[in-house]
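Hi everyone, sorry if this is the wrong subforum. Our group has a chain we'd like a structural model of before ordering constructs, and none of us has done structure prediction before. Sequence below.
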Amino acid sequence: MKLKSFKGSSMREALAMVKRELGGQAVILGTRSYRAGGFLGFGGRDVVEVTASTDQTLTRRPPPQAAAPPPRQADVRVTRTYGQLVAQAKRQAVGVAADDLRTEIGGLKDMVNTLIRETRCQKLPEVPEELLDAYVSLLSNEVADEMAKTLVKRICAELPRDQWRSQHRVREALVGYVASRIDAAGPTTLDGPTPRVIALIGPTGVGKTTTIAKLAAQFKLRQGRSVGLITIDTYRIAAVDQLRTYAEIIDVPLKVVMTPRELKRAIAEFADKDFVLVDTAGRSQRDVLKMNELKQFIEAARPAETHLVISTTSSPQTALAVIERFGDFNIDRIILSKLDEAVGFGIVLTVLDKARQKLSYVTVGQDVPDDIEPCNPRKLAELIVPTVVPVAERTAP
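Answer:
Right subforum, don't worry. Here is the predicted structure as tokens:
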């Protein structure tokens, strides 16, 4: 009797070897699947082993006697047809491979998570392991690295170490610290002589026109104040038309001016108003000529408040460049626009830390007059400090 074992990476490969060497009439006597090689479960390979023979008599068995014991499992496999045996062998191979794969994936994930944590702890000795998740969560929300480290150091200094593993306590402490760094200006009120002139400046595309319409509606409809609108944004016809539409809806007068002298005259003509809001044209911080022209308009208006509008959709580098270039305009306050479109909220801390100015308003949508709110440090801090997600969960597939 010729009995031989054939090994392949799959059942199909092993059976092909059987057929090639022993012929199509070969009898399959047994199959098994196992892993070979590797180290600690990694780097091995799946092996399917098929035992076969050319002796056809192995398929003939005498009928069992009444008192005879049930046939052994090996004998049952021998009497099955070739097709049934192959189907069963495939199911067994797939089942074993799936179980092995799940086990290996679980072990690999644990190893990767451990390596990531150990590597980060080595590279960030100033960040304790217990606070690593909080630190990474801040970075994921666009908080600058140095700022995130500063916040973690404050946790280390002021929160008892036995509370460092409490995600709730750590987040609450971080929210409190972040809120304390946000200087809120409060809503604009009618202080001093009237009309109170308020100018909005900033680069193109940050939403100044929509924001000024929201403020006008707030003053007129919510506070019952008289309002006049002035725009010097004559470069974009659409911007003038947009503000004119808002002015008609809110029922406030609008003046369009072309020169600083006309701006002075328009403000004088609004002497009976409580508030005069000046919408300026967007200026690239790199365009020195246009920036100087804008400065002449602002000097002519002599506003009681100059608000720099910065979009929270900007990159931190762009926001810092805007703050630096518009710093010559004697900015009083900051307005953060498009908070509803921001990818991360850490830019709020970046802007306020660089500008050193109070935050007056944030805009959270396009609706006039609803989608604008005075700065609330606690609410902003809760956006900036995300719910802590463990590093292991961040790296899970």
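For your construct planning: DSSP finds 14 helices and eleven strands in the chain. The chain has three domains: 3-108, 124-184+377-397, 196-375.
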